[in-house]
Every structure is written in C-alpha cells, then in structure tokens.
Amino acid sequence: MGGTTSQSVALGLGRIAIAIQFSAAGSAAGDQNHGTCRVLVRHDADQRRDRSLFITFIPNATAAVSALGYAGLLVQTPLGIVSNVILVPLMPIFARLTAPENWPELKTRIRQGLMLTAFTMLPISALMIALAVPIARVVYERGAFDANASVLTASVLMAYAIGMFFYLGRDVLVRVFYALEDAETPFRISVVNIFLNALFDFLLVWRFGAPGIVLATVSVNVISMIALLIVLHRKLGGLPWREWSPPIALLALGSVAAGFASWFTFQGMARYFGSANLLIQIVELSGAGAIGVGVFLLFATRLQLPEVQQFIASFRRRLFRR
Predict the structure, then answer these.
(1) What is the pLDDT of residue 54?
(2) How do strand 4-10 and strand 15-21 relate by DSSP bridges?
(3) Element (DSSP H or E) covering residue 151
(4) What is the rounded distance in angstroms from the CA atom of residue 297 to the CA atom of residue 165?
(5) Buried b / exposed e across 279-315, counting CB within 10 Å, b at 16+?
(6) For 1-97, where are the E strands, in sequence order?
(7) Digit-coded pLDDT (tens) for 254-302
(8) Is residue 116 a contact partner of residue 86, using CB atoms and an 8 Å limit?
C-alpha cells in the first residue's frame, strides 16, 4: 500500500519538514525516494557532526552556536514560504512531462522554476545582507542579547543569505529528477556532499569563524546545483543555458541595486531619527526594506520576463480577491 512518511531534514539552510508519497509498495519510484530520504537524513547528521567538530575551534564557540541557530530561524521563514509557493505547484507538472515528447515543455517549466527562484530569493538575499544588523537588533537584541551578539548573528545571517538562491534552485532541480524517477543522481551527489561539506568546513572556519560553517554549506549547494544542471543537460538532450543565464544575471543585478538602496535608506533614516527605541528601529527597517523591494520590482518588471509577469498578475488577483 502507498503511504506518506514525514521526515525533518536539513537541506543546506535550516530544517524543513517534507512528506514523501510512495506510489506503491516495492515500486521502483518508492524505493528510490525512500533511499534518497535516508541519505538526506544521514547528510543532516553528518553536517551536525561536522559543525560540532569544527565549531570547537572558533573562539567563544557557545556564542557561535547560538548565532547559527538564531540566524537560521531568520532564514527559515521566507525560505519555507517561498519554497512551498514554488515547489508544490511544480512537482505534479514535472511528473506529467517526463515522456521524451514532452521534454521541450519540461525545459520550459524548469526555466520557470529557476526564474521564480531568482525573482524571489535574490532580492530577499540582498535585503537580508544589507539589513542584517538591524534585522538582528529588532528581532533579538534585548536582555542578555547585546550589540555584540547582534553583530555576530548578522554576520551568520549574511552567510546564510548568500546561499538562498542556490538552496532553492537545487531543490527545484532535485524535484525534476524525482519526476523522472531518477533518485540515484541526487543520492550520489548527496554522498559526495558529505565529504565536501567537511572539507569546506575545515578550510573556511579558520578564516571566517561561525559564518565559515554556513559558507561551507553554501559552497556545497552551489556545487550540487551545478552538478545537477550538468546531468540534467545530458539527460534531456541539452538545456538552453544561453537563454536562461542573462535573465538570472539581470535579476541578480537588480537585487544588488535593491540592497544598496535599502542600506543607504536605512543609514539616512538612522542618522535622522536615531535608534532610541524598538518602534523607531522597526520603522527604519520597514522603510528601508520597502524602498529596496520597490527598487527591485521597478527593475524586474522592466525586464518583461513572462515568469515575473505571471507571478505578479497572480499575486494581484489573490490580493484583490480578498
């Protein structure tokens, strides 16, 4: 009989609960997905062991552990929401397009997933990097959580933010492999990632401290995404790299502009209003974030990307329907 098993696994950034529906007892797809679930859980355990090993070499390791946890919570909220918005609708679409005659449309849907990932994750990452310190201060800085703790948490948050696009983009590609009933490729890449994660931890923790642990995982996610794209390129008879790369690069450029706009806005408001109390800090953070979002949307809408236009049109319909 088919069944649903829920596991909480770490896929690079935070812990996310996933549910895997097995199509039939003993089926190839079910066995493959079950095997992949096992390796992801094992990868999570190995990541925790890597962190517990290398974090002991960081000065004030207790504060570093706390900063990793607090920054991870800040990332999980937008990442969890956006991942559900993008991945849940795409999975059944991918599953319907696995026949070779449907591969052209499957490639279009893969592009849609990656473009939506770039459109959502890149600006969020830019704003988190630009406003990391005020975000940490507004959310956490009270009581024993002092200014130094905010700075440390902000540095880890910046490292997390760098990898948000690669985390979700990799997850889109993994869903394509599952739809194609190929869990072996993600399995093998996950096994390699276990060793790469330990290597990057060793190399980066000495240079960057607590953020280096996160950057190690980000590096693994970047390599994973590239590897999945290369295998998928061969499996589907070619992917239109040249058509996909410029829009993503332009969205990244718009995100950088949004990040600078939000940072300068916050600095100007902080100089004028100060930061005497929490309410002022919230107003300054909200204003700076709104300016950054506005700059990005102005930039992104001018690109005339069909995925962006469809996303905005869908958002408007749902907004006005309420």
Answers:
(1) 64
(2) antiparallel
(3) helix 147-162
(4) 17
(5) eebeebbebbbebbbebbbebbeeeebebbeebeeee
(6) 4-10, 15-21
(7) 999 999 999 999 999 999 988 878 999 999 999 999 999 999 999 999 9
(8) yes
On the question of pLDDT at 4 being above 50, the answer is no
| 243's tokens | 């058509």
What is the per-residue pLDDT for 202? 87
Q: What is the helix (H) or strand (E) element at residue 299, kind and residue range? A: helix 278-301
**Residue 25 to residue 46: CA distance in whole angstroms:** 29
Retrieve residue 229's tokens. 């794209």
Number of residues that this document lists for the chain:
322
Tokens representing residue 71 in the block: 């920054």
- The number of beta carbons lying within 10 Å of the beta carbon of residue 118 is 26
- Stated pTM of the model: 0.81
The angle subtended at Cα 17 by Cα 16 and Cα 18, nearest 5°, is 115
Structure tokens at 12: 């690079």
